[in-house]
Request: fold
Amino acid sequence: MKTNLLDFNLAQLTEHFAAMGEKTFRAKQVMHWMHQMGEDDFDAMTDIAKALRAKLLASAEVRVPSLMAAQEASDGTRKWLLDVGTGNGVETVFIPEDDRGTLCVSSQVGCALECKFCSTGRQGFNRNLSTAEIIGQLWWANKAMGVTPKNERVISNVVMMGMGEPLANFDNVVSALQIMLDDHAYGLSRRRVTLSTSGLVPQIDRLAAACPVALAVSLHAPNDAIRDEIVPINKKYPLSELMAACRRYLEFAPRDFITFEYVMLDGVNDRPEHARQLLQLVRDVPCKFNLIPFNPFPNSGYGRSSNNAIRAFREILQDAGRVVTVRKTRGDDIDAACGQLAGQVQDKTRRQEKWIRIAESGSE
Ligand code: SAH
Ligand code: SF4
Reply:
């Protein structure tokens, strides 16, 4: 099998070229072609010597996951389904806003952590994505929206909030993050790349050392009893340990706060006393809250909190001086909201009708 150069960050590609007896600056050139120009054909890399191109053609490739389908919602949200060879796809979502464009990237096919309210978790775990499959999502999105000169990129922010637990696929995710940040590739600011985790404590410390990007933690509960129930990894890494890990991370983080995500589940974690308990829990952690109205899926067994409950919850946190955002649901008509990125595994019928088959549309 040929080596997939899309799997390498700059350090790894440099090493690979050195092992081939090639000069190290070639790695930078090839990174530029692959990631900034969206090029997957060595013959089109015109400033690379012909002899080297021939060598690369024989031993290597730029293998991006193939695109199975693409969709666009009426609000401009876009979604791509990439073939990762498991019979189902992984999804990537682009969310345009006035001042930024955010790409929501997946890290695994399925997820082993089984959070009760999450449709990815309900699927179970299939496998980790390779670095090429993770960065391939950015590659495709850039390509689909037109590769523009640097600094005019449509994608200004990346959130690792698609399918999977990114810290459970640590090495591949870190390499992909390094490519996102690299000036020879996507050149994104550390502050604009956010990794969301359900709270794998040892890996939070490892991330601080390896590649500190902005951190979001899926808290979802104000105490261990509720969190044990809805985020089962809490039994292994309870809240006291998670809060301590957040404080340690802040010494390395590019931002001076942690974002706590909190899915609003009707009657489960959305009462005023839960908000007060939450304030106590995070009293020593500089943080912002992102309240996420629960996105229902078939047989979830949960309901979305009422707008009144969400408003009251938010006000308690705000009155205590905390910054709170309530996540807007975007891309409703293409099932692109959080927790709905279930690929095509279970719900094949309804979803498939809505996908625009690439073959039919002929675009992209
Ligand atoms: N595994 C990581 C990142 C992916 S999930 C994590 O858990 O943080 C991204 C966010 O969507 C998480 O906060 C997750 O808890 C939330 N989420 C999952 N299912 C949801 C649903 N049905 N409705 C709303 N948010 C959901
Ligand atoms: Fe996995 Fe995150 Fe879903 Fe939990 S919420 S099952 S960690 S993807």
Summary: The chain has two domains: 3-61, 66-356. The pocket of iron/sulfur cluster (ligand 2) is lined by residues 111, 113-115, 118, 120-121, 164-165, 198, 218 (CB under 6 Å). Confidence is low (pLDDT under 50) at residues 342-364.
